[in-house]
Amino acid sequence: MQLKITDFCSHWPKLALMLAPIITVILFLSRNDIGSYTWFFWLHIPILMLHQIEEYIFPGGFTEFANEITGEKISFTDTKTFYVNVVLGWGVFTLAAIVGMNLIWLPVALLIFMGGNAAGHVGGTILLRKYAPGFFVSLLINIPFSFFIIFTLLNTGLLSLFDLSLSIGTAVVLVFIMFLFLLKT
Questions:
Q1: pTM to 2 decimals?
Q2: What are phi and psi of 131, to 5 degrees?
Q3: 8 A C-beta contact, residue 113 and residue 96
Q4: Across residues 148-175, what is the average pLDDT?
Q5: What integer best gives the mean pLDDT of the chain?
Q6: How far, in whole angstroms, is CA 20 from its chain's centroid?
Q7: Around 163, how many Cα atoms within 13 Å sit in the side-chain half-sphere?
Q8: Could you please report the per-residue DSSP string of 107-131?
Q9: 185 pLDDT above the threshold of 60
Q10: Does 1 score more than 70 pLDDT?
Q11: How far is CA 52 from the centre of its chain?
């Protein structure tokens, strides 16, 4: 039997469930060996996974929820959510952690992206008066984490206004790419 990528597409959240605590433990054990801000960029990966676990496992239902509210224009399928969450999400977040402070605009762009995504979950829950999977991690972790890191980097002078502008532009481009990918074809 030959496995195809589509066989994995509906099971990737289980991998997040396994990887998030392992990555978190490794990060806490190595926190003295990694620069503090770079460490936070690495920590953003298991935080992303925790958000995805709420969306797709506990309690899950994000795909159905998103398809219900987006109607005919956007399509969330197992394959598309795999590519958005794993290939783009885990891939770009890992790249951002690797480049860290050397290209600070990239990890900050992802903090902005996740802060905006989280605000969408919280705002969607409030406006629709219906739970949006991902709401609790968004409210309790993603939004505070994103704002704390960005404001700390700004206040310490490690993030310039130019880099912040570049980060905002990059975050907008990432949102655009994600929605283009999700559009029904």
A1: 0.91
A2: -60, 125
A3: no
A4: 96
A5: 91
A6: 13
A7: 18
A8: HHHHHHHHHHHHHHHHHHHHHHTS-
A9: no
A10: no
A11: 8
In the chain, where the domains are located:
9-182
For 84-122, what is each residue's pLDDT tens digit? 899 889 999 999 999 989 999 999 999 999 999 999 999
DSSP the chain: ----HHHHHTTHHHHHHHHHHHHHHHHHHTTTTS-HHHHHHHHHHHHHHHHHHHHHTSS--HHHHHHHHHTTSB---HHHHHIIIIIIIIHHHHHHHHHGGGGTHHHHHHHHHHHHHHHHHHHHHHHHTS--TTHHHIIIIIHHHHHHHHHHHHHTTSS-HHHHHHHHHHHHHHHHHHHHHHB--
